[in-house]
Amino acid sequence: MSMFRGTKRGNHSVGAIYITICNNPRSKRFLAEETILNCVIPGPDEPSLEQLNFVLEPFVNDMRQLYYGELLFLHMARGSSSLIFLGVNFRIPNEIEPQPAHGYLNINASDLPASRKTSGLRGHTSKWFMCTICHQPYHSLVDPDCYDPEKFRLREDWRFIKYAFLSRRADEYDHQEIHEKRGVLWSALDVLPDWLPARDSPTDFMHAAYLGEVKHVIQDILVGSGMFTKRRGGVRPLERLESFLEDVWWPSTIGRVPHKLATGGSGKADQWRNFTTVLVVALYASWQVDGMIPDADAPRLPKSTKAREAHARVEALLHERRRTQAAYNSNLTLEELANIPEVSMDRNYLQHFQVIMEWCTAIRIWSSQSISVEEANRAHECHARACQTWARMNCHLTPNFHLLMHLTSYIFRLGPVYSWWAYPYERNNGLLARFKHNGHGGGELEATLMRGWTKMTLIHDLILHLSSLGEEMTDEDQAAIVTLKKYLKGNTGACATRGTLLTMIATMAADQNNVCETAQIQLPKQSKNINLRTLNLYALVFSYLRHLWEHETSLIPDTSAVTTLGEPFIPTQPHTLTLLLTESAHSRNDPSMRPLETTCAVVRPFVADNYLPVMPWDLRSIDLGIDVWYSECLGARTIVDVRAFSGHFALATVDYRELKLWVSMSLCHNTQEPDRLDSEEW
């Protein structure tokens, strides 16, 4: 379930319940045309749990029927009978008769408030039910033990089911008592087979990590607490940070990080995600002194400023939590209790830099499309160390930091977060919000959105039907397909056709096993014939193609004698799209033989050697996808196949004493960066 604003103006809140079929591969699973819009919840306000149960009842009834199917009584010999459950029948490709199929609700993938409400669980700000997996209370967020898995005491999920059923028929007093002391109320989902409220309501990574942790770390722990306060000598770390973000080179298909995002604004999940990619280098550029992170404290916020007042309110909140935590700690001494008002956040630059590296490592590993058990455990350990260190440094931490301590168990059960996070549903909300409507309430707006989604789905089905006609397809059918695809503003064909060059490079070949060998590369239309010899590229391209096609033909230079055996390579045949991209097509001497074609790139690699300085992030450089190169220095030109590109990166320039360096930060989230065994792999 996902809530969004249904109108451009005002606060008309609309809800949507989407159904994703997990049997589909991930590349198809989250497409809008493969997603079922179960219902649109009328606004203008969000529904209560009781109201939501009425909305969910038809869905629950359908899911129960899909699971159990139809009841069939079979009368056996001698008067006996048996009860058989038959699944709901569906039409299956290549099957004449409809076939029975079964299904069940796997998980509730929603943001934290919607997830808790839908499952009937108490909110994450509840004193005793902040976490539905373990018994850590809300006030324990100030204690390092709150982030130590060995100290967790896990809950029994069946107790939630037990008290949910008891609350269903309870009177008003018992109903409230169960809610307060057992942390659960009746939800319509509780009657579904194999449904457990806590287990099947995982913490969504997009909301908890990017919109939760990342935003809080940058805007509250770092900026809000004064870690970028002006230092002596006129050094302004905040201006350095904003200047760094403004100067970072980003690929055109990757959204930039607004340079003012650290100091305010909600930001989008993708922006916070990109911020974590460059955060470690950004902190170095902001805090470094002679190429090192100083082992010193940041100055305190100036008095009589709004930032100082806001930070004082946060400190007062933490003091209250520490006093509450102390009330349940029998080992606390009177002296420690008296010192609680004097506790303040550790402001050491080096300590914060080191813990940020641990935390960014965890976020990067967890967000990979492909992740192993060992990598998931390593990310879990990095996140635990980071949170425990922040707690010891008396930083303000929110429930998301604890809830993500249980993320690894969800990954083990459900797979990488890419297969179940809420990004696709937020995108679907955007599709719904773009449908035209008159803004009328009373359910009229929501009905319009539902009709628009249904129309989009039917158009997609029509495209599939027309595309399957084969030889019976007429010119009118082809024209209709083109028109319908333009209406949907996207290619809905089931092919592996690449997009433009930039899109191809962005999505390509980090995992070559997933790249179709016959995938067509659709290049930009703007091209022209070039003369390789004029560009001084003939020898380079000739050597590359001769080696590439050595089993197909014997290429010889175009200046070779006529008697030389082989096929001459003509320097004016290739097409160029930029000075870096060449599409070579070699016509054969024998017209009956197919022409040889390839698309390659002329590149100049970055330059690095063993004399580069050791940077403060060196121990985590592979985990973070960070590499250092000599600035404004490129190697000799070389030729590579465009399919060898492994992903995007951001590029920044930083100072190390008197030396300027280029720093590349990988934006590839397919899997972890490979270990470098020797310098030749650079």
Write the layout of secondary structure elements.
Layout: E1 2-5, E2 13-19, H1 26-29, E3 36-41, H2 49-68, E4 70-75, E5 81-86, E6 88-90, E7 99-101, H3 112-119, H4 157-168, H5 172-182, H6 205-224, H7 237-247, H8 269-287, H9 306-327, H10 334-338, H11 349-366, H12 373-392, H13 399-403, H14 407-414, H15 423-434, H16 444-467, H17 475-488, H18 501-507, E8 528-529, H19 538-548, E9 555-557, E10 567-569, E11 575-578, E12 581-586, E13 596-603, H20 621-624, E14 626-630, E15 638-641, E16 649-656, E17 659-666
Parallel strand pairs: 9-10
Antiparallel strand pairs: 1-2, 2-3, 4-5, 6-7, 8-11, 11-12, 12-13, 13-15, 14-17, 16-17
The pLDDT mean sits at 85
β content, as a range?
5-15%
Please count the helical segments: 20
Q: Give me the secondary-structure category.
A: alpha+beta
Choose one word for the global shape: globular
Ends distance: 46 Å
The profile of the biggest β sheet is: 5 strands, antiparallel
Strand order of the largest sheet: 8-11-12-13-15
Total tally of structural domains: 3
Helix content: 25-40%
**Count of DSSP strands:** 17
Low-confidence stretches: 490-518, 678-682
Radius of gyration: 30 Å
Provide an overview of this structure.
By secondary structure, this protein is of the alpha+beta class. It has 3 domains: 1-68 and 435-494, no CATH class; 205-419, no CATH class; 498-682, no CATH class. The protein has 20 helices and 17 strands. The chain has helices spanning 26-29, 49-68, 112-119, 157-168, 172-182, 205-224, 237-247, 269-287, 306-327, 334-338, 349-366, 373-392, 399-403, 407-414, 423-434, 444-467, 475-488, 501-507, 538-548, 621-624, and strands spanning 2-5, 13-19, 36-41, 70-75, 81-86, 88-90, 99-101, 528-529, 555-557, 567-569, 575-578, 581-586, 596-603, 626-630, 638-641, 649-656, 659-666. The protein has a 5-stranded antiparallel beta sheet. β11 and β12 (581-586) form a beta hairpin. α8 (269-287) packs antiparallel against α11 (349-366). The chain is globular and about 100 Å long. The model is unreliable at 490-518 and 678-682 (pLDDT under 50).
